[in-house]
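Re: [ENG-882] Designed sequences occasionally contain unexpected residues at chain ends

Forwarding the minimal case from QA. Structure tokens:
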């Protein structure tokens, strides 16, 4: 798929990654209301990559994706964020965590 992805699946993924980056930034960098500059940059990068995901609304979770569209340094950063924020999502955003987990399970079965 070429062009900008604006469907509900991509919007959900964007929301999830934003929530995870917020949790990690608050926990690791001590921010409260706004993200620090490096986390803001990572969020912008991740959302841009999602907007242009070649799978569009048929995308799997990024962890199950056969194509790694992040640059190696950004991939390392987002992995660290997900490793930190993933378990904490249960307390901060349980519904989002449930949706993300179920989507991951469904997309691996296809």
């Amino acid at each position: 798929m070429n062009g900008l992805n604006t469907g509900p699946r991509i919007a959900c993924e964007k929301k999830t990654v934003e929530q995870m980056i917020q949790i990690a930034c608050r926990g690791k960098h001590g921010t409260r209301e706004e993200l620090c500059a490096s986390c803001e940059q990572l969020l912008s990068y991740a959302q841009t990559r999602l907007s242009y995901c070649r799978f569009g609304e048929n995308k799997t979770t990024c962890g199950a994706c056969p194509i790694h569209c992040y640059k190696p340094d950004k991939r390392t950063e987002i992995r660290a964020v997900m490793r930190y924020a993933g378990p904490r999502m249960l307390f901060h955003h349980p519904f989002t965590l449930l949706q993300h987990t179920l989507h991951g399970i469904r997309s691996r079965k296809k």
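QA comment: On inspection the terminal residues look reasonable. The first helix runs from residue 8 to 29. Proposing we downgrade this to a documentation issue.
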